[in-house]
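re: that chain from earlier
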Amino acid sequence: MRPVVHLLRAEQALGGSRATIVIKRVASVAQSRVFYGYIVVAAALVMMTVSSGAMFSYSVFFAPLQHEFGWNRAVTSAAFSVNMVVQGLFSLGVGRLTDRFGPRVILTVSGILLGAGFILVSRISSVWQLYLLFGVVIGAGVSGGPVPLMSTVARWFRARRGLMTGIVMGGVGFGTMLVPPFADWLIRTLSWRSSFVAVGILLLAVIPLTAQLLRRDPWQLGLRPLGDAEASSATGADRSPGGVSAGEAKRMRQFWLLLATFFGFGFAVHSVMVHIVVHATGLGLPSSQAAATMTAIGALSVAGRVGIGSMADRYGSKRLLLSQFVLLALSLVGFSLLRQDWALFACAAVFGFGFGGVVPLNSHIVAELFGLRAHGAILGSTGLGIGLGSATGPVFTGWCYDALGSYSMPFLVCAGFAVASGLLVTFIKPVTQHTDEAE
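^ sequence. v structure.
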């Protein structure tokens, strides 16, 4: 009965044909048995799975590219670093565009760039082409995924926000489990060039189509966020989320501490994600088992994203972030010091859970600290921090290996960055109370 009461009030307030159009639209949604936010989450999960899986499949292309062109590890890993810088820079603008126009157009363009970029990489003959296509084109495409999707989910859910964000970001884990082994099988069966083409076709087929299911926020459909008990007869145009603006956030100490925290996260995590497969083959594992380390990371990262994301709804983000950085640091020390096969997979599991748990907390802590008014723009800024760290870490790790012939020292440095990020989290204090309808 409540939706009907709200419709009648809306009709009285608006009057005329505009009221009729609004009411018909709202009524059609209200009759649905499934809250549309769950459809948004499902679509976002699919897109995160294929886009993230494609990105992290670069680890299985690492050795074939080295073998084909004779590049050292620093040069080969630099393509991923260029990609992460571009992601970070574009995430600033993508966050603002999401706040203004919504995620549907952005994800459509993102899917086209990703698919075309992967197909074109199959034709490269020099390193600058790899940097341009994988670094710039694919980097721009990937930037259109995490920030718009996490920001959109945050707008749809007040209750279960952490859980829903964790489910969406679980797509990174599912993608890491599925796409790199698929790409490795294609490389062994056909060639690395054919594998790039197959992954590109997958991206073109899935992301633009699935993006059409997205809606920026529930007010567009005459709904309220799940868990928002406040009755309202206003339309989406009359509702504005509470919180601080992006400009106000950038004048706060918390904002810069958050950027530094996620810089360290990006440095540590993506050093492993780029180098772990080639590290495993260097320890004597065949390529199929080496690629399986990515599967272990992906499987446990799903558990981390969903489990820690759901816990954030009850316990908040700060102490959970600290616990995840401790796990990351321990796993990185293990990667540095241990050489047995079982130890490698055990460290990959701990690393995956720690890495996975941090991801949904990123969006969650931005909403906790700054509200939803400029959530996309602020989240995009933290994405820049991740991007810069992710650009620096893999190249540094590759350079260290080329100089020392071992991953022991660079992985220990990565562990140090994880510890530093955990310490920074302890200094992040709550922002002065803000009004936020979705909290």
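The chain has a mean pLDDT of 81.
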